[in-house]
C-alpha cells in the first residue's frame, strides 16, 4: 500500500468511527423497521460473486410484510468518502465499525436482519452468530 492509499484507508476508518451511530440510525429508520417480538438473524456467507446479494434481496422481497433489515458491507462502503468501487480493499477496516453499529441497533431495537457478508474473518462471524444465539434469536 502506497502512502496515498494508506491515507485513504486511515481517513475512511476515522470517518466510519465518527459517523457509525448516525449511519446505523439512518439504516434502521424507525418509520420503516419496527420492533419485533421474535426477531431473526440471517447470515449470508460465501465468496464474492457467489450470489449472496441477489439471494438476500430475493428473501426480503418475498416477505415484504416482515420489514427485514438488509445489512450489506458493500453498500456501507458507498457511504464513505473517497470510495470508488475499484478501491474497495482500502475500506475493509472502515466497514467493520459500520457493520457493528448497525448490528448494535438491530439488536437493541429487536429488528430481524440479513447480514450479507463473506465471513472472511472467522472470529468476527463467530462473534456475530454467538451474539444472536445469546439473544435468543433463531439463526
Q: How would you characterize this protein structure?
A:
The chain is mainly α. It has one domain (3-29, 41-134): 3-Layer(aba) Sandwich (Rossmann fold), CATH 3.40.50.300. It is 51% helix and 8% strand. The protein is built from 5 helices and 3 strands; from the N terminus they run αβαβααβα. A 3-stranded parallel sheet has the order 1-3-2, with helices on both faces. α1 packs parallel to α4. The model has no long low-confidence stretch (mean pLDDT 93). Residues 25-137 form the Zeta toxin domain. One of its GO terms (molecular function) is ATP binding.
In short:
With 139 residues, the chain is mainly alpha-helical. It is built from 5 helices and 3 strands, in the order αβαβααβα. The chain has a 3-stranded parallel sheet with strand order 1-3-2, with helices on both faces.
List keywords for this structure.
139 residues; mainly alpha; Rossmann fold; kinase activity; P-loop_NTPase; ATP-binding
Protein topology:
Layout: H1 3-27, E1 41-44, H2 52-62, E2 69-71, H3 73-77, H4 92-108, E3 113-116, H5 122-134
Parallel strand pairs: 1-3, 2-3
Distance between the termini: 38 Å
Please provide the count of β strands: 3
CATH superfamily: P-loop containing nucleotide triphosphate hydrolases
What is the N-to-C succession of helices and strands? HEHEHHEH
Number of DSSP helices? 5
Q: Could you tell me the CATH topology label.
A: Rossmann fold
Keywords: ATP-binding, Nucleotide-binding
Pfam family, one: Zeta_toxin
Protein name: Zeta toxin
GO molecular function, one term: kinase activity
Amino acid at each position: 500500500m502506497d502512502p496515498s492509499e494508506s491515507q485513504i484507508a486511515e481517513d475512511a476508518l476515522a470517518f466510519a468511527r465518527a459517523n457509525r451511530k448516525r449511519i446505523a440510525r439512518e439504516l434502521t429508520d424507525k418509520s420503516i423497521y419496527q420492533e419485533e417480538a421474535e426477531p431473526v438473524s440471517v447470515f449470508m456467507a460465501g465468496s464474492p460473486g457467489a450470489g449472496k446479494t441477489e439471494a438476500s434481496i430475493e428473501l426480503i422481497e418475498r416477505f415484504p410484510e416482515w420489514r427485514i433489515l438488509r445489512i450489506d458491507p458493500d453498500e456501507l462502503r458507498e457511504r464513505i468518502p473517497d470510495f470508488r468501487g475499484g478501491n474497495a480493499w482500502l475500506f475493509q477496516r472502515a466497514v467493520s465499525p459500520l457493520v457493528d453499529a448497525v448490528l448494535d441497533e438491530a439488536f437493541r431495537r429487536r429488528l430481524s436482519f440479513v447480514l450479507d457478508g463473506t465471513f472472511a474473518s472467522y472470529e468476527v462471524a463467530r462473534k456475530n452468530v454467538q451474539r444472536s444465539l445469546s439473544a435468543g434469536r433463531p439463526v
